[in-house]
Amino acid sequence: MSLPSVTAGSTGIPESTGDGPRRRWGILAVVGIAQLMVVLDATIVNIALPSAQLDLGFSDSARQWVITAYALAFGSLLLLGGRIADLFGRKATFLVGLVGFAVASALGGAAPNFEVLVTARAAQGLFGALLAPAALSLLTVTFTDPAERGKAFGIFGAIAGGGGAIGLLLGGVLTEYLDWRWTLYVNLVFAVVALAGGLLLLRTTLRDTTAKLDLLGTALVSAGLFGLVYGFSNAESHGWSSIETWGFLTGGAGLLIGFTGWQTRAANPLLPLRVVLDRNRAASFLAVMITGAGMFGIFLFLTYYMQQTLGYSPVSTGLAFMPMVAGLIVSSTLASTVLLPRIGPKPTVPFGMGVAVAGLVLLTRLGLDSSYATDIMPSLIMLGLGFGLVMAPAMSLAVAGVDPADAGVASATVNTAQQIGGSIGTALLTTMSASAATEYMTGKNPADPMVLAHASLEAYDAAYWWSAGIFAVGLVLSLLLYRRGGYIATGTTAIHM
Q: 31 to each of 56, 107, 165, 182, how far by Cα in Å?
């Protein structure tokens, strides 16, 4: 087993030992700002994409790469980023990720053409893969008091779950009132604030200079995750029957199977299997992945519904998601500070999945003239409450109980699960919604505006139903996998009651 530092690895003492409350909550603020930047960047560019396309003149078939380039680099390099944080220090990795992400964002904002924009988005994903696991592992080793840890992970879970909606709002405001380029330039503000706080608050730790990276494992998992993300991305444009879809999916799955086998023999494994074999931790990784997949049924299709069917502006669309964010913040805090210690994850996470199912089923009732106050907002509040009950406990348990030397890679696995889940959700829901629209149009006049409008509703309904099905599967799996009993987090240990 490789040891990242004397302080965090060899002695087993968290990096934050001796930190006062002010420093700990300051670290949470720094980590939260960085995490928000990474999460919202997955959606903030979506609303700006039509304006960017008009400005730079790229084709409809090429525009997906502005989104996919970020997802590919981010998803395929996360485990490597997590292990780098463990081996070379969380503070150094965090700060390098911040600076790199800011530089890549500036390059993208100033992009003179499509090629530079896509290159910058890929660079954002690369540095985000360093930043995200380092951020969560810093949080893991900073908060050792059970009550404080619950509050901290409640806040962090709300950021992870609500960042996408905040990205839609911020993207709408910047695109509508400034320029699409500011959806990238705004990252400089986040990065400068987080960098200043990180330099001031984070402690530098010694590292074990004898530790080595698992190069073969890195190659296998990076190529495997690339194959999965790329394959699911191709499903949107080429269809599930295309060799460019199933070929990459099959190859990616094969490489990940090979990676798993190698991890049982490697001297310094990239992902020690002890990290994923704990029952609660495995359930949490699955819960995060399922939530990532199902959430796209809301962010993607409800955005189109509000803008194209109801005629909302980008800013109005972003504002419309805010009740969901409010519900998520409330339920994340409640789950982490009250429910998880008292009743544990087994009833909490499945109940959250069930609330999300109910909210999604309500969305299937939306029509061409539905009211926001009576039809959309109640569903969004339910969804926010459901997401918070899932995300905060799952993210807390996913990194609890790990050896301090594995905190970075455990954090990376959480982010990887969310990213892969999102990629699967995007491809699956896009394909199913398109099929529903095509089936509805059969035998009807495609030039009739009402026919087109109802076809769109059929597409959205299919996405909501499939999302509900994803969360229903999550409900069953979390009921089966999570252990019974209350839970208390003490540093990187977990006590079950």
A: 34, 24, 19, 22
Q: Max CA-CA distance within the chain? A: 72
- C-alpha distance from residue 145 to each of 40, 142, 340, 359, 440 (Å): 29, 9, 15, 34, 56
Return the structure tokens found at 484.
């019974």
Residue 23 in tokens: 């420093």
Mean pLDDT score across all residues of the chain: 81
**Does the pLDDT value for residue 242 go beyond 50?**
yes
DSSP string, 203-253: PP----TT----HHHHHHHHHHHHHHHHHHHHHHHH-TTSHHHHHHHHHHH
**Do the beta carbons of residue 472 and residue 353 sit within 8 Å?**
yes
Range of 43-57, 342-356, 481-495 with top mean pLDDT: 342-356
The amino acid present at 35, given as its one-letter code, is Q
| Entry pTM | 0.78
Please give the residue that has the higher pLDDT: either 101 or 164: 101
**Both tokens assigned to 202:** 């984070």
Q: How far is CA 344 from CA 97, 160, 307, 339, 483, in A?
A: 34, 21, 40, 6, 8
CA terminus-to-terminus distance, the chain: 30
- Pair 290, 470: CB distance under 8 Å: yes
Whether 104 contacts 127, CB under 8 Å: yes
In residues, how long is the chain? Answer: 497
In the chain, what percentage of residues exceed pLDDT 70?
89
Q: Which amino acid is at 124?
A: Q
SS3 495: strand
Q: Which helix (H) or strand (E) holds 493?
A: strand 493-496
DSSP string, 331-374: HHHHIIIIIHHHH-HHHHHHHHHHHHHHHHHHHTT--TT--III
The answer to whether residues 485 and 496 touch, using CB atoms and an 8 Å cutoff, is yes
Q: What is the Cα 147 distance to its own chain's centre?
A: 25
Q: Which two structure tokens, joined as six digits, stand for 182? A: 């500011």
CA angle 457, 461, 464 (to 5 degrees): 140
Distance CA 243, CA 338 (A): 49
Q: What is the pLDDT of residue 61?
A: 60
Q: Which fold has domain 20-204+270-487?
A: Growth Hormone; Chain: A; (1.20.1250)
* pLDDT, position 277: 81
Selected residue with higher pLDDT from 5 and 336: 336
Instruction: Reply yes or no on whether the pLDDT at 430 is more than 70.
Output: yes
